[in-house]
Amino acid sequence: MDLVTCSMSALIFFPLAAAALISLIPGDQKNVIRFTTLLATLVMFGVVLFGMALPTNETISFDIETAGMQNVVSLPWIPSFNIDYFLGFDGISFPLVVLTALISALAMGASWTIEKHVKGYCVLYLILLTGMMGVFVSLDFFLFYIFWEVMLLPMYFLIGVWGGPRKEYAAIKFFLYTLFGSVLMLVAILMIYFNSDLRQLSPQQLVDSNVRLAGVEHLGAVDEHLAAATKYHETISAAETPVHTFNLLALQQLGQHSEVFDKELLFGKSLQWWAFVLLFIGFAIKVPSVPFHTWLPDAHVEAPTPISMILAGVLLKMGGYGIIRICYPICPDAGYDLAWVVCSIGVISMIYGAFAALAQTDFKRMVAYSSVSHMGYVVLGLGVWSATVVGDPVAWNMGVKGAMFQMIGHGISSAGMFFMVGVIYDRVHHRNLNEFGGLFGKMPVYTSMAIIVFFAGLGLPGLCGFIGEAFVVLSVWKFSAGLAVAGAFVVILTAGYILWAVQRVYLGAEYKGPHAEALTEINIREMAIAVPLCVLAILFGVLPHTVFRYMDATIDQQVQDLATWTKETKIPRIQAEQTEKEATAAVAPGWEQQAAEAAAVRVDAVPAVAVVDGEI
Amino acid sequence: MLTPEDSLPFLLGLAVLLPLVSFFVIFLFGKWLEQLGAHIATGAIAAAAMCSLTAAAIWMAQHAPPATHHAHPAESHAVISQSSVHLTALHDGEHDHDHADGLVHGEHDEHADDAHFVPPVYTGHWYSLGRFYGSEVAINYYIDALTIVMFCVVTFIATCIHFYAGGYMHEELHEVTDHEVTLADGTHLKRPGRYHRFFQYLSLFCFSMLGLVIAGNIAMTFVFWELVGACSYFLIGFYVERQSASTAANKAFIVNRVGDFGMLIGLMAIWASLATFNFGDVDRNGDGKLDPHEHGLFSLLRPAGENGLHELRVPDGMVLQGAKERVEEMIVAAQPGTTTADLESQILAQVSLWRDGKAKGDATHYGYWLLVIAGVGIFCGCVGKSAQFPLHVWLPDAMEGPTPVSALVHSATMVAAGVFLVARFYPVFAPEVLLVIACAGCITLLIGGSIAIVATDIKRVLAYSTVSQLGYMMLALGVGGWAAGVMHLVTHAFFKSLLFMCSGSVIHAVHTNEMTEMGGLRKKMPYTAYTMLVGCLAIAGVGVPSALGIPFGFSGYYSKDLMLEQAYLFRSANPLWGSIFFYAATGGAAVTAFYMFRMWYLTFAGEPRDEHRYKHAHESPRVMYVPLVVLAVMAVAIAWPIFGNYGLTNVIEQGRPIGLWSDMASLDGGYVWLHESKSHADEIRTPVGLMAFGAAMTGIFLASAMYLWRVLDPTDARRTFAPVYKFLVHKWWFDEAYDVLFVRPAKVIAACCVWIDKQCIDRLLHGLAWSVRQIARCGEAWVDQGAIDGAINWFAAKTYSTGAALRGMQTGSLRQYVMFIVVGALAMFVLMSFWSYGFAR
């Protein structure tokens, strides 16, 4: 195995191996287990950061200039269904991989307060990490789905066993909601799979999408790869039955350059329209978008602090990732037609989440609703399909980049906010916003860090929340002025609920709740988690380039591809439809004319009768 | 380093960053620094002031301001009577001054009389926030004369205030007992001092404010706009333990966010149509040429044009965005098979028709209203920040902050940022927007002035006065007085910060804000009293009107007269609105003079009304009154036209943006904005000067009559106008109205959202879950238990019962068994016989 295969597989299987190792440690060695888990997550983060994010190694480091997939691993897994062990990342998934590694290490640090079944917790925690990494790096739709489900189960137990008083309810709600989405997704996956056909792709497209050329040998050089792909193309073209594929990149090519997904399915809508809807619902549940969001507040309120951090920091991003990686590139036609729906859902989530947050008295619930609101920006940004004939799709590019940045920024700020809530919950064991106050005087260091994090959530310039929110909102007007105004309105509400909460918790003269004596200043371990989050919140806010540099090439490419598709495929389609409509309309006046003539005859005839009557 | 292109950005960038460094140092090490923190902050801002002044010197060495143009009556008559566009450069003629040396004169000849004058500007790029194909959102700079002036004003005043605050905040050096906070156990709050924290926020504020001033694009302006808002939030809420302070801080931030909401709309409109935020052109790739996407807003909106006058023209992008539906129609209606390039050129060919409303059967000026939306949107931000009606409500509450904050943030700099932005963004404003600005300013100046008359809290009087003065500036800008508005911004910054610091000195001495408990303090604190008197005279605009010979006065006199002259000029072209604006402004001048002197008399004149407080009063320490004296000198002299070509007016005039050298008219031609130079004509100066003088004197006289000579009794007046008084004391009921109109509905909607979540969505889900459980239960009861289990159980039971029935036969008797065998064998035999027989057949 070469280094790329090793490193990519390690992203997925290293946590699993660590989990296996931990299961061998006796359960009463709590600290050993904790440190081993922390070490595992830190090693993961170290590898991702130093091995891949920084240009230290030519083979596995992420190349910011490359728009396409990097570190591709493609091995046969279930050849009879063309299911591959197909991994890789690009500018869309790589930042999320880094975020996952970071948040999981920090959240493990926050897990020290967990005393119950530490061994079980750590094992499940590492399996969860496997699932999350797998989702972001797998490029085979089937593999993606497997990891999507793998991640679900540990989460269920982590909430259901280590949660608060209503943990069972929250866990089952989370599980069923997500499972419902997964089932819809599975239906869509099968629909897409059985309609895909590799024969429609040219050899170059086969090469571009890294299709595994079964039965054809090649040595890896570029021209040889193409030659092999040509050969493969000839082989499969000869076949009478379609060659199906789960390869996401190939499916993207098929969606944009062929008509295999355009056949009508139900109620006059095409297959890809239905696939888009099913996939989008699945992802919208994960994001979560209104009206599929009610699992989130319950899950967050009941989940222990580190799990809330993971949930808000990483899991929600999978929804956004799915939309940008799967929905739009594979089903562009449906994406174009449904852009308005997607954007409206985003805006509704933003407004609804903000209003709901305003009414909360539970600190964690308020933060949870703020997540609903903030993730609405992601959906909105991904949806602003404003490409047209004139000019570059600047606004759309900005929306997508803003949405991607918002995912990273929200990963930092929401994880930070949940952690900050956790810090005081650990001390006073309640979260009632009306029973706090005066923490500024008792815990000044903690308060100043909490205020940084909450202001990042508020979208203050110079902190990570601003860039994403501002870019998304600015990009919307080109698509729709009305939605843009509604989206911009949220800045007022966000300021309202965050400042109000800050005032009730941190400001004021004295603490109003129970266990006042327990309010001690933040300790070293907690500082070790809070400081990186604060520093990153500031760094990403001041130098957004640190994040954008990874995304730019890929997003530019993807938006450009879809814009080209709009110009070359969609607009002619619309024009053709219009011509057809006019053609029918051109026939219709003929009938109308006939009808009018007939009516005129009748009008002529009636007076004649009347005259006759008159004569009588 | 030697050329201004390099040295100006470096110096001003340094001035921006020094306070930031100070902020970080104090933020991280404040606890150990104690008083040193204040010294670091003060040193940083003083160094920034040095940088700014050096930059100003470099600027003036490089670009000598245009010479003032002494007007001959006949010439000015020609100016005002000419309906055609006639441009003169600055034309104040307020004194005889010697013409400057030859070089400057040359400049004057070269620029000042040139209608096509393009102001000197340095633009450049610092770093990028995000790139979107060719377009970009960046941190860059735009340095012109306005930037230089603002830098000097902000850093100078901030330095004074830092020194002053060093004395004012000394209580915070040790443990503080906050008498305004009573704890649950009835004692007052004791807390450690936060001396260094104050300077930390102050440094952050200075950084943000300077960043705002140097901003090279409107998005960067927005960034720093929000940051100054956040600093303001921290500073208003400096006494975090006080409920009133934290509420006021929240109010300030949220009300400002309402304005920012509008500003975002403006930004969106601009970005969607033009895909740039830059004010000026920035040559990003450094090839010495300007690519299409390197053009800034000003050159997009004000191309040189045929006559070179840089008149406002809706850019192509805005037309396309405005005519979005037409474009879509064209795309859809195009014949299939039209190439994208053809379609694009067809659309672009339509643009100029759409812009001028000449498209077939369609007289809409596409894009123009988008431009108006963009302008009004940006102005909304200014409304919030500069406390204009209807968002003025936060500023008076912001007085909860320590007084140096009020002096720096809430009078001199941050609240003036709105005015600054209007001035900066002036070339983008369509005339309709200017009318909106003028209206907002006019209403604000009346509201602020009227409430200031009845306020008894010394800081609130000043706060409402600030609101009112900001309204003046907006009004001046709105009626076309660019230089007048900016001029008042500068003079106001000096005298208002002076007034606030004096009030702080008084509060420091008597520990109350209520003027009813003061009186007679001039004997105890002469420096404060007389510097404040200077401030009052300056804000009232006292001076010798030009009709009486040599015009000469305090700084406010120059700027206020300029504004009134411009309003008068506007009136000459637009009688109705112009009259409203002009008389409101003139009346406002009287009101200003009245409440300022009322305040001074109540505080310093007469006999002490509270002996106890009077006894403990004392003059403030030297570190506090020296800045007062310095600012008083500036408040007197800053606008004096004695500096040749280097006077304030000249430098400001040099910053006048392109395209403002000609008259403007609204789209329908109903309103006309005459060029500002025409307002300096003697026909305008003379009557306006007299009226302004009269107004100020009326105000002062009335105040003296009521509060000094006591010939009129204020309580009588209060009783006579009881309803009006009540209306004013309750601040026009704005807070109450906003509570009913916005705050409560928002809370109701929020509660509705929660209700929907709990009672609709979750109910639905629980219902679904319940019905699934019921179905499962039914399935279990009927199918599993009834059908399948039933069948199996039935079968088992039958088997059992059959077995049980057959058990009777197991008797154990051999005979019986033998008989069964025989019978059985026979039966089988018979059966088999039949069987085989049957088959055999």
From TrEMBL, chain B:
One of its GO terms (molecular function) is NADH dehydrogenase (ubiquinone) activity. Residues 136-172 form the NADH-Ubiquinone oxidoreductase (complex I) chain 5 N-terminal domain. Residues 215-284, 364-569 form the NADH:quinone oxidoreductase/Mrp antiporter transmembrane domain. GO terms for cellular component: endomembrane system; membrane. InterPro entries: ND/Mrp_TM, NU5C-like, Proton_antipo_N. The chain crosses the membrane at residues 12-33, 40-61, 141-165, 198-216, 261-280, 366-384, 405-427, 433-454, 461-483, 530-554, 580-602, 623-643, 688-709, 817-837. Gene3D superfamilies: 1.20.5.2700. Keywords: Membrane, Transmembrane, Transmembrane helix. This is NADH dehydrogenase subunit L. It is a multi-pass membrane protein. NCBIfam families: PRK06590.1. It is found in: Endomembrane system; Membrane. GO terms for biological process: ATP synthesis coupled electron transport; electron transport coupled proton transport. The keyword Cytoplasm does not apply.
